[in-house]
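Quick illustration for those who missed Monday's session on complexes.
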Amino acid sequence: MSCFDREGATPDATTPSAMNTFAQMTPRAPGRTPRELRNGGRVKSGGSAPSGVYLPNNNILTPQMRSPEYVQLSTAAAITLGIMRGNMYRCACTRCLNLLLTYPEGCRANCAYCGLARHREAERDYADRNFIRVDWPAVPIDDIVDIVARDPQASPFHRMCISMITHPRSDDDTLTVLKRWTDRIDPAAIPVSILSNPTTMTRADVERLHELGADIFTVALDAATPALFERTRGKGVQSPHRWDKYWEVLMDARDVFGPQKFGAHIIVGMGESEREVLELIQRIVDLGGHSHMFCFFPERGSLMDHLPATPRDQWRRVQLARYLIDYRDVRVDHMRFDGDGRLVDFGIPAGELDDVIDAGVAFRTSGCPGKFAEDVSACDRPYGDSPPSDIASYPFQPVAVDLKKIRAQLGRTRPGEVYEEGEDIEQFAG
Ligand code: SF4
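Prediction with iron/sulfur cluster bound:
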């Protein structure tokens, strides 16, 4: 059975604490990779040919697979397509087909929070690396298109997204993958988003993606301030990205794709203050775009895997405030912050705020919209930023017990209301 018949995740634990500070969230320095293991050396010397679906974690004779013929896809998407077996906690399927370009050389960048980063070359072959907490099986793109093209209108997917990585072939191969999709699947039936890699891109690349039918273009800014960006994605970890280049391409996307059709990904809790991240979100809204947020989670094998996940109270405040800025016309200058930049007043009357909390949408995964509503993301990324036992971004509509937990995390419980730890899990166990 699949979601063309289904969705899954691995439980682990996070410990809420105080706000993650800049001083606290310092990545490890990357180690040296032996020369023979650089640039996919082990995969290339193994010389194994791919056949069909490649499931990660073999790490033995990982085959030489290359985009555009091969792409990786999220575990959730693979289960939804019916090419992997599995179930996901409280999710029938994912609404976004997330694809990732793949090469034996892998991503040539070294972002400190990312499981795909280059410093892992000695430890794990690229196609075996975890990314946003899950494995990414590799499949021929034509096989994926074959399945979806049978009946795009009836597909469980509300959107497809191509994630570029930092690789010399990435710009051209993204175009090829997009064209193979749009040649057979009407983008009006399943719109396409591009999660870009600005470092290698020009404005002409942005234009070409738009001409070929991409609907939304996002930039994975990830870090909320220039100093955090430099420390986690730039020279601080021997990585090639530059804040200014990311903003240049974001502005190109604004011109080419237009209002509401561009945006930025931002990770919350890597050391920025709540005021800093919300000012960034306001800046993007003022430009006409949207922000898609991720809660920092210490990705296994990354240079930040020793650091704490974002405390749930910090995350919930930012998640709620971002929703108000993006969809309720509340401005960051209406909000108030304490001396550490922690949000203390959302800038709207308490009754209105309680209504927004009780609606629950603010706490769902944020991303490009699907077919349900403008403020409901197709990209639900089940358990991409948290374990099911301590959900950060809800990949489904939160129900009463979830909202009770969220209100407790926000310090806004109703009179007489008590959330017992694990109550939500118990309710859905078995
Ligand atoms: S560019 Fe993207 S895929 Fe590559 S290491 Fe950085 S975050 Fe990961």
